[in-house]
Write a structure and sequence with these properties.
This protein is α+β, with helices and mostly antiparallel strands. Helices cover about 45% and strands about 20% of the residues. The strands form two sheets. It has a two-stranded parallel sheet with strand order 1-2. The chain has a two-stranded antiparallel sheet with strand order 3-4. About 15% of the residues are buried.
């Protein structure tokens, strides 16, 4: 399943609903899902693995905790 910014035009309630449903489908159907998100907090909450890009280069890759800490150390914003 490939999703490019699936929550970008939604209010917070619907963002959470969509991401929760995607997670349920992914796990329930045994899918591999690739999401493109600009919201690092949402990515950290709903994704198992993250790849953080900065100016077209991989800045961090791994678990949400590792990537989130790398982003904070680099001064990235959460959204």
């Amino acid at each position: 399943l490939l999703l490019d910014e699936p929550i970008s035009a939604l209010d917070v309630h619907h963002q959470l609903t969509v991401l929760e449903r995607v997670r349920q489908l992914t796990r329930g159907q045994g899918l591999t899902t690739l999401l493109v998100l600009h919201d690092l907090q949402a990515a950290a909450r709903y994704c198992d693995d993250l790849l953080l890009l900065r100016q077209g280069t991989v800045a961090a890759r791994g678990t949400p905790v590792l990537v989130y800490h790398a982003a904070l150390a680099a001064g990235e914003t959460a959204a």
